[in-house]
Amino acid sequence: TQQNQCVFKLLNISFINCSLPCYILFILIGCVKCSFDNHHHNGTRRYDYCVLGAGPAGLQMGYFLSKAKRDYIILERNSGPGSFFNKYPRHRKLISINKIHTGRQNREFNLRHDWNSLLSDKADLLFKRVSSEFYPPADAFPLYLSMFVKELGLRVQYGVDIGRVRAVLSATGRSYILTDQHMSDYTCSVLLVATGLWVPQKVEFVGSDLVEGYESISTNPEDYKDQAVLILGKGNSAFETAQSILGTASRVHMLSSSPVRLAWQTHYVGDLRAVNNELIDTYQLKSLDGLVEARLEKIVIARRKEKSKRRSGGKKKEKKVQLYLTLNKYIQHKEEKNSSDVTGEELPGYHIDNFSIRKPYDRVIRCLGFRFNFSIFDSSTCPPNSEKAKGRLPGVTAWYEGKNTPGLFVLGTAAHSRDYRSSAGGFIHGFRYTARVVHRVLEQRYHSNQWPSTNLLTTQLQSWILKRVGEASGPYQMFEVLGDVIVLRGSHCEYVEEFPVQALPQFSSLSGHEISNHGLIVLVMQYGKKKIDYLGRSRAQTDWTKAWKSNFLHPVLYYYDTLPTEEEMKLRPYGWPLPRPKAVHHMVEDFLTEWESPVSHIQPLRRFLEHCVQTDLRAFYAESCFRSSLTHRKPPLFCQQGYLKQKGVAHSSQLWQHVHDAVQMPTEQEAGTSGADHAFPNYLAQAGASMSSGLKLDF
Predict the structure, then answer these.
(1) Euclidean distance between the first and final Cα of the chain, in Å?
(2) d(Cα 607, Cα 573) in Å, to the nearest integer?
(3) Which stretches within 285-427 are classed as H helix?
(4) Do 461 and 493 touch, CB atoms closer than 8 A?
(5) Cβ distance 61 to 194 under 8 Å?
(6) Taking a C-beta distance cutoff of 8 angstroms, is the pair 425, 416 a contact?
(7) Which chain regions cross the lipid bilayer (predicted)?
(8) Which has fewest Cβ within 10 Å: 199, 233, 348, 658?
């Protein structure tokens, strides 16, 4: 190999001139040099995987690549990980919950309520180590990410500002070349873009140059003392800004094209959170603040100076710049008009004397969120703008690969177009799971490693499903996006966890698992589709016979006899995560999110599974299995896979001693009876078992 040739060449030189210690030194230098040459060929650094960005999504993918021992590098333009959080949110409070105390020790369950930690195999590498606050300070997040990098030994290269990304084709296939600020190149077979959203979203209108941006405004409330402020936008950054100045500004108005969407009504964590909505109180309780709707493209921000007034001392009071909002349709001679010069006839109050926002403002602030940085990609690599989110996000496939850019995957917030305004893929507690999805796709495609699965006996399926719906965090956070796929194979099945359900038509190629003629079941978590009074008396459904009417998050199982096609996926009913199935089962919503009630949850689930697999899935005691084996040609599946294969109670001398002791301890009532030996039935009674098996088999 090239490395061995380097070592032998150095050894030949050292034999002539050096002693034994020199030989060792030359060998070490040679190994290091050859290793360096492998990654630095002709001035270009080469890797199998390049991760662009050391934010939470980039580091999450770095963990999976590191664990799989892949050749990768994480490139970060700043001097540390998670640099976005050094500045944003501007008012330094995160709205991702950090619920440390859940009353449970189950780590997987606790991730349902920990929205900041990344996934790893280190049980204590959690965000709670840097903050115990329910809504943590933003400064804690870069600290956590630094700890994540250090303790896992991730390969991150800081100070690399990639300014151009292009694709090249060669005999070995497509590869990506990344050029940094020093004109150094990095070449990789797979590019994983985790740059997030950091370019401020702007809307061009007349007078937009007079508007301040969320990214540059003062965060000192005193700077807004007795000022009238207009905020463009009604998202969390807009309300966060409004909330910080409520106590000092004279009035705060908020304007956007759509009404406020409340997260607790839409179940979308990107909508307005209660922690930021104090202005709704002051608006509805009539305390000078308010919300209005207008399309930003149709407004005009005009500058107008007040007439100077004389003070009591005879001196003129300094003129104060005032900003007026008017509408484009009121502006005369638009081609000649300067945005800072409006007449009284061009103000809305002249046309509508009670126009909502006819009074002037001291400041207008833009809080419209952020967009993906498309500028670094050339025509051969640039993913298309998604139709969702006003084109702010790149368009990606259901497995997060850029459309028309094979080998380029988008991670994290930037990949949110797949579930925009419907699930949690734009947030840490969602994209930590979609990053794992991408890694599993990569492992199957480039290394022929099947998507991890659990082989189960069909009789174990019900218990496994109950375990998953009771604790699994991935489908719980990424509801209606990630689901568990159960590949039925007769007496056994394969349980594939957290597959992107919109990619179901490509299941076999992405996962490496083939669908059999027994069909498949897909388990997803989903909310009800009916709009209701979310705090009204009838908001919850408790009757298991009407489980399909559940409004809150609940498990839904879809059974298909064949894999849905791409066409069926496109034509699925509006609002459904999946096409219409052969059979569907809703597990009724539960106030405690614990789907373990025998009558309301377990029994209906078992009957649905029995319908899908066409066999009896009840569990039986050994006595019942023994009886059915003598009286039926085909005993229940549970007996076939357990009792008849001697897979009952595991052999243990201590356990059998316990059974023996239980048999030898009759109750007072038993001591007074005579006749037949009741030891065995009494032991069943002590175990809480029914004396009658209640066996009803139709064979």
Answers:
(1) 67
(2) 26
(3) 348-351
(4) yes
(5) yes
(6) yes
(7) 7-29
(8) 658
Tokens 């077979």 found at: 189
Single-letter residue type at 604: P
Residue appearing with tokens 């850019």: 405
One DSSP character per residue, 541-563 reads: ---GGGGGG--SSEEEEEEESSP
| pLDDT of res. 330 | 87
Q: Which residues pair with 692 in a beta bridge?
A: none
Compute the distance between CA of residue 276 and CA of residue 244 in angstroms, rounded to an integer: 9
Is there a contact between 648 and 622 (Cβ–Cβ < 8 Å)? yes
Strand-strand pairing, 72-76 and 44-52? parallel
Inter-residue contact 622 to 635 (CB < 8 Å): no
Closest CA to 45 of 177, 174, 168: 177
pLDDT for residue 200: 97
Phi, psi of 370 (to 5 degrees): -130, 165
Residue entry with tokens 């003062």? 218
Residue in the block written with tokens 């809305």: 348
C-alpha span between 542 and 550 (Å, rounded): 8
CA–CA gap between residue 683 and residue 666 (Å, rounded): 9
Distance CA 259, CA 290 (A): 12
Q: Write out pLDDT tens, residues 180-238.
A: 999 999 999 999 999 999 999 999 998 999 999 999 999 999 999 999 999 999 999 99
- Give the number of other CB atoms < 10 A from CB of residue 247: 10
Q: How far apart are CA 382 and CA 444, in angstroms?
A: 25
Q: Which residues contact 356 (CB under 8 A, 6 or more apart)?
A: 290, 292
pLDDT score recorded for residue 316:
56
Gyration radius (Cα) of the chain, Å: 32
Tokens of 466: 């109950």
> Could you give the CA distance from residue 125 to residue 119 in angstroms, rounded to a whole number?
9
| The pair of three-digit structure tokens given for residue 478, joined into one six-digit string | 């990424």
**Number of continuous H segments (helices) and E segments (strands) in the chain:** 20, 23
Q: Could you tell me how far CA 684 lies from the centroid of its own chain?
A: 48
Q: What is the DSSP string of 90-139?
A: TT-B--S-B----S---HHHHGGGBSSPPP-S-TT-SGGGT---SS-BTT
Distance (Å) of CA 276 to CA 89, 91, 267, 535? 12, 11, 16, 19
Determine the distance from the C-alpha atom of residue 400 to the mean position of all C-alpha atoms in its chain, rounded to a whole number: 12
User: DSSP 3-state assignment of 530?
Assistant: coil
Q: Is 140 helix (H, G, I), strand (E, B) or coil?
A: helix
The single residue listed with the structure tokens 């009670």 is 354
| Distance, CA of 682 to CA of 699 (rounded, Å) | 31
User: What span, in angstroms and rounded, lies between the C-alpha atoms of 119 and 57?
Assistant: 11
Angle at 66 between CA 65 and CA 71, to 5 degrees: 70
- The residue whose two tokens read 């046309």 is 351
Q: What are the tokens at 452?
A: 């991890």
